[in-house]
Design a protein that fits this description.
Elements lengths: L14 E5 L3 H12 L3 E5 L5 H5 L5 E3 L13 E4 L4 H14 L2 E4 L12 E5 L2 E5 L5 H17 L10 E6 L10 H8 L3 E4 L5 H5 L6 E4 L7 H17 L3 E6 L9 H10 L4 E4 L4 H8 L13 E5 L13 H6 L3 E5 L5 H10 L7 E6 L7 E6 L3 H4 L7 E5 L14 E2 L3
Helix pairs in contact: 7-8
Length: about 400
Amino acid sequence: MSELYPVALRLDGRRVLVVGGGSVATRRIPALLSAGARVRLVSPSVTGTLRGLADRLEWRERVFQPEDLEDVWLVQVAVDDPTAAQEISRLCEQRRIFCIRADDRHAASAWTPAVTRHGPVTVAVLAGGDPKRAVAVRDQISHVLSETPTAFEKHGGTVALVGGGPGDPELITVKGRRLLAAADVVVMDRLVPGLLLDELRPEVELIDVAKLPYGQAAAQDEINRVLVDRARAGKFVVRLKGGDPFVFGRGGEEVLACLENDVPVLVVPGVTSAIGVPGVAGIPVTHRGVAHEFTVLSGHVAPDDPTSLVDWQALARMRGTLVILMGLKQLPKIVETLQRFGRDPGTPAAIVMEGTTRHERVLKGTLEQLPSLAEGVKPPAVVVIGQVSEVLEHRSGAADDAVA
């Protein structure tokens, strides 16, 4: 077999035909749509995922017919019938249309490589017709690109707000880790996963906001100033925050500060501790037939504080899940307020301390027991109130400190 000639296709606005509506088509069509292709899908039936994309493509709900090749630049045959695939391939050859075949790559005129994408870089791997080898090589390249500073990306003069996740360093997003590897300056919170910092290049300037020489009231202004000043100096600044930048992380204030000073800013969401910490601890914040809603609130302000923006009376009436962040100090007042406004004292509840890390500790009891449960617990901790706290009690290996 002759050597393959690698090439990248510009499909924006060009029609691509996909024959078949199963798993192969489900994998290929999103990438074609992302490339701007006008996708024509021909299949009597399709997967639920493809049905959800029906408004973005032309679906002909029937078997293939020769007229389906009209105005087509590329064909992806994704059917299990080799006879039908061969006939489509033959018609494509007659019309000089490149054809990819899922059933027999050696009988096709084009191949789909194993692909990994990192920002502006796309790597496509062909391995002489061995898809397992291609995927293995692709995965190794992907790992290198994820872990290595990305000199191919130019972010100088830019600030990126990156959510570091709830504690486990592997829960940062792929994009977040890639941008962190490219940073010139990292401005960090105390709750960011510490192991991520160990991976930074030696020359990266690391700024711990907890050590800025200003009082608590002025700290955010100083953080904003640092972000803007370093970016104006041509640096790529990553503001690394625990959880998600916009869930009680004051990320919005930092975005506004950048925009007001004409500094471009990127936002990379993170796994918020409000969902991730209970989830890893075996507590789903919603569950069919148990909770149809959940509310995340900050507990750093007491319910009777005039600056509180929380409608505690309304929360007490809700039947869903309450997830409280930063609430240890005010927990006795929070519990008293919820019970006073009608929440059942026997409502299942839990506290998850240092969730998603090897130091995780899960304490379970009831709403009225929360203050006693919290004795000796140190931040960071997430409080969950609701029936979901015990819905997965039967799961094996749950590391819970049960309360009698």
